[in-house]
Design goal:
Number of domains: 3
Structural class: alpha+beta
Distance between the termini: 55 Å
CATH class of the largest domain: Alpha Beta
Order of helices and strands: HHHEEHEHHEEEEHEEEEHEHEEEH
Strand content: 15-25%
Radius of gyration: 30 Å
Helix content: 40-55%
Number of strands: 15
Largest sheet: 5 strands, mixed
């Protein structure tokens, strides 16, 4: 008989507390269970159980064999589940939380295509720039933009990007364009409340970071409000390049301070997929992430 079967029988003997009960649970003849135990002990050259008429006592060797056998059985089951999942069609309700900018730019335009490709996935999209507790709120997945925070979650980097300082032609015609980051203190800056320090913007020149104090009368926790104010000439904003590329291309906004590569850290920000930790991630989650990661990268090819 195969080794995995022998391990399963031995572990069931320990779990059941007797050979007779193990044979009933497994649906095997008592002689089969006894034979498996005898062959295993003979092969290993040690006694695994001390048996009396009423009970079994596990030897030190038996405890060690049980621990390793249980681990191997569990790994074999995980491998079988993983392979079977390759053939399974993604299905079920998928709860996703994501910021509005990511939703409008990358997700909403392709929802019909996604639903056509995966008709058995039922989406529950919760759109907010607020960082929510995935586990506590029973979300399968989050898309987040910015810099990944240390956490107990699994994180996959999907699309790195730069952050662009920009303003409308109307604003620049009235107030001029800043030539150096320090000039921003003389301008109306549109403040993003989700930043840890919204009144300090960071720039880099030749790898050297500089923090610049800014001020402004308009602030929001949502990027589209800042964009609306910027387009109407109310101030200077900093935004992900993927959120303003159409405005820059069409001349609604003008890029500023480009030689001072703006970054809030040494590593570029990115759009991330964030998941609760799990041994086997559901097919519906992988399908969603792979589909929209492809859409994100196609936009910048």
């Amino acid at each position: 008989m195969d080794q995995l079967f022998n391990m399963q029988v031995f572990c069931q003997i320990i779990d059941s507390g007797s050979l007779a009960q193990a044979s009933r649970v497994l649906g095997l003849a008592p002689a089969t269970v006894t034979g498996v135990l005898a062959r295993t002990e003979k092969k290993l050259g040690v006694r695994l159980l001390d048996r009396t008429t009423r009970r079994i006592n596990v030897t030190e060797a038996g405890r060690l064999w049980y621990e390793h056998a249980n681990r191997i059985i569990e790994q074999a089951m995980e491998a079988e589940d993983a392979v079977r999942s390759l053939a399974a069609e993604p299905r079920g309700t998928l709860r996703v939380t994501l910021p509005l900018g990511v939703a409008m730019t990358f997700v909403y335009p392709h929802l019909h295509e996604f639903s056509t490709q995966y008709p058995k996935i039922h989406l529950d999209l919760q759109v907010s720039d607020r960082i929510v507790d995935l586990v506590g709120n029973r979300f399968d997945l989050a898309f987040r933009a910015g810099h990944a925070k240390d956490s107990d979650l699994m994180i996959r980097r999907l699309l790195p990007y730069r952050r662009i300082t920009c303003a409308s032609p109307q604003y620049l015609a009235l107030y001029g364009a800043p030539q150096h980051p320090s000039d921003l203190l003389q301008h109306q800056c549109l403040l993003y409340c989700h930043e840890p320090h919204p009144l300090h913007w960071e720039y880099r020149l030749n790898g050297v970071a500089m923090k610049v104090a800014v001020k402004g009368t308009h602030a929001s926790n949502e990027s589209h409000a800042l964009l609306a104010w910027a387009r109407s000439g109310l101030g200077i904003t900093i935004q992900p390049e993927w959120l303003v590329d159409d405005d820059l291309r069409n001349g609604r906004l003008i890029r500023l301070l480009d030689k001072y590569a703006m970054s809030m850290a040494s590593e570029l920000p990115a759009i991330y997929a964030v998941f609760p930790k799990a041994r086997n991630r559901p097919k519906k989650v992988e399908a969603f992430v792979q589909f929209f990661a492809k859409k994100m990268n196609e936009r910048y090819i």
